[in-house]
Amino acid sequence: MRLHHKWAFAIFTILLFASPISAQKYTISGFVHEKGSQESMIGVNVYAPTLLTGTTTNVYGFYTLTLPAQDSVDIRWSFVGYQPVIKKISLKSHQQINIELQPSILLQEVVVKADAIKKESDKVQMSTIEITPLEVKSIPMLLGEKDVFKALQLMPGVQKGNEGSSGIYVRGGGPDQNLIILDEAIVYNANHLFGFFSLFNGDALKSIELTKGGFPARYGGRLSSVVEMNMKDGNKEKFGGEAGVGIISSRLLLEGPIIKNKSSFIVSGRRTYIDVLAQPFIKSSSGGANAGYYFYDLNAKVNYNFGDKNKLYLSGYFGRDKFYFKSSDVQSQSENGLYWQNATATLRWNHLFSNKIFSNTSLVFSDYTLKLYAKETYSGDVFDLSYSSGIRDYSGKFDVQYIPNPMHLVRVGFSTIYHTFTPSAFVIKSSMAADNFDNTVKNEALETSVYIEDDWKTSFKLKINPGIRLSSFVVGNKTYINPEPRLSASYPLKNNLAIKASFASMSQYLHLLSNTGIGLPTDLWVPATEKVSPQKSWQVAVGLAKDFTKNNISVTLEGYYKKSDHIIGYREGASFLMIDNSSTTDEFNWEKNITSGQAWSYGTELLVRKTAGKFTGWIGYTLSWTQMQFDELNFGKKFYARYDRRHDISVVAIFKFTDDISLSTTWVYGTGNAVTLPKASYSPVPYDGNFYFGSINDYGDKNSFRMAAYHRLDIGLQFHKKRPKYERTIEIGLYNAYNRKNPFYIYLSTKYNTDGTMKQVLNQVSIFPLIPSISWSIKF
């Protein structure tokens, strides 16, 4: 059997790297930039129409295309929203051709061209959605705050959490099962304002891509999805920027050349001013106490071009949310608060070994910290209490792209991450030494992986992406090693129609302990240990992709099935503050507070999307089921996950009346969340005959009750004014335009009847009625 495997591997290797030698071939390669800014462009189509062969640029704007020798051949570079470039070249030698694409001024210049649009039927990869920052800015949202994650929630297969939340649940997975990447750096907590907004400022982003399944081998570490975002590089030709003012926050972006056409920078910042506006009201109503909440974030990036073969990038992000309360009188002072923050830094070096081999080397830092604190001072005595949790990473990556011929694009690479987990750091400091206490728990781990994959266009019209990832995790005296095979395939049934299939095995060595009843960002990141196994999943999907190129419409229909194991959660009654009372040192032992289980997710997703023209938008529909099973919960029986939704519909429509006025609307519908409510209650009668006040509830099965269905209409009207040196935009928005009272949470209360009897009443709390908004922005 092993001999057969060796022969199979040898045959696969020969096919992988085989290149026809019967005809002389030459390679054209280079970088594609935006004219006027020199911003590198991702996903540009590079196509030879007469040879029916093409490729696309990678995340750094680099492309390479190998073709048979030709006296004359037309090459076309095209991208939605940009004027295509066509060059006639003599292909008798290897050539490097760098291209600049001019943004289209007139709308009709970017429509009707069939090869100007990325066709879904041409892609081997399925379950992948790209959304542009411009689309994010065009969609009406809560309080006018443009949010990447809320735009992703409008795609099929992506569920939101509670009303207004920016969290995403992809194909039945939890929020910890999404790999969120910003310029190669992992972001662990992507929420502002207790989850109502995400921390990504769309002004600074260049590309956004969501992968829901069929993961290429280059991605790993999570079970459900990959959200990959790349920041802009900065304008290399001239200084410019953007500024905006909304109801709750303001933002500013500046960019420009450091050395013209060689080096540039970009800096983007955003801050709320809720605390500033509320200060006069808080002080007048609280006798001089000071309280408030704010968040801010900062993106920065610089780059240097050493020539076509070497480019250097340094980028970073820092953001913080803080809630605080301060009070004082003659004898005492007190200060209480809560904050959480993210910080990332990425140093990247692109190197071009040849016109067929491109490499990227990255050094990455990522940190997430949560802290609750309280400080009391009374007559000179000081009492200081703090609780903190977090995770810090130091990582290195090396990736290579090798394109031996137009039939193959081989990717190979490795990465290593040194994790430091702090599940709990509980510290008490007092002026009385006997009261001091320090209980800090830390775990260290090393995660490594290697992978290889190939985009292979076979001679039978079949396109496949086979790959394998080998990952390992070392924590304490335990070492986990997991192979993760991947395969995606696409076969054209006829012109612009393809059938697709994928399989992916994933391993996740990090867990997120979440107590959903708290409502605060007190989720704890913890590692797999000797007692707690890593999460694992496998997912299979099949689907159809159809392009209507004349109308710039694409249609995808996919069905999927996913099985997950070793999912963890708190035992009944446990929380993030539980201490191990059996320990003589009062240690926090999260391993004793959890239970492990499994999950099943399956469903069907439909996406109809129009990406160019005066009218753009999409319709998404998801039919899905998500069930979980834990031996220590719900008497070991399966139950529906809280975020399980049978039906989920999103309709997004953006219409440009003129170059100056555009209207955007979104309508969403979703089955209500699954919750646990008591089905009966009774008053206990003790043996001694005494009467006990109160009652005991019988809850029945977990999550056996459904909240009311959710639906909402949002409207946004944008007015643009273009001047020679700037462009101004005013947006007026309506969130929940028909004032639907959607359930945020529900609870039971006791109501007394006129005859003195009591009954239990179900109450619904809604938090977002019709909310108008207005915002102003300028681009210069």
Give me the secondary-structure category. Answer: mainly beta
Question: Compute the gyration radius: what is it?
Answer: 28 Å
- Considering DSSP H and I runs of 4 or more, what fraction of the residues is helical? under 10%
Uncertain segments are: 1-22, 106-116, 581-586
Please give the oligomerization state of what you see: single chain
Q: Could you report the average pLDDT, rounded to the nearest whole number?
A: 85
Shape, principal axes of CA atoms = globular
> Main beta sheet, described?
22 strands, antiparallel, barrel
Query: N-to-C terminal Cα separation, in Å?
Result: 67 Å
Number of discrete helical segments: 4
Strand content: over 45%
Q: What is the total tally of β strands? A: 49
Molecular structure report:
By secondary structure, this protein is mostly beta strands. It has 4 helices and 49 strands. The strands form 10 sheets. The protein has a 22-stranded antiparallel barrel. Strands 1, 4, 6, 8 and 9 form a 5-stranded mixed β-sheet that branches. The longest helix has 16 residues. It starts with a helix and ends with a strand. The N terminus is likely disordered.
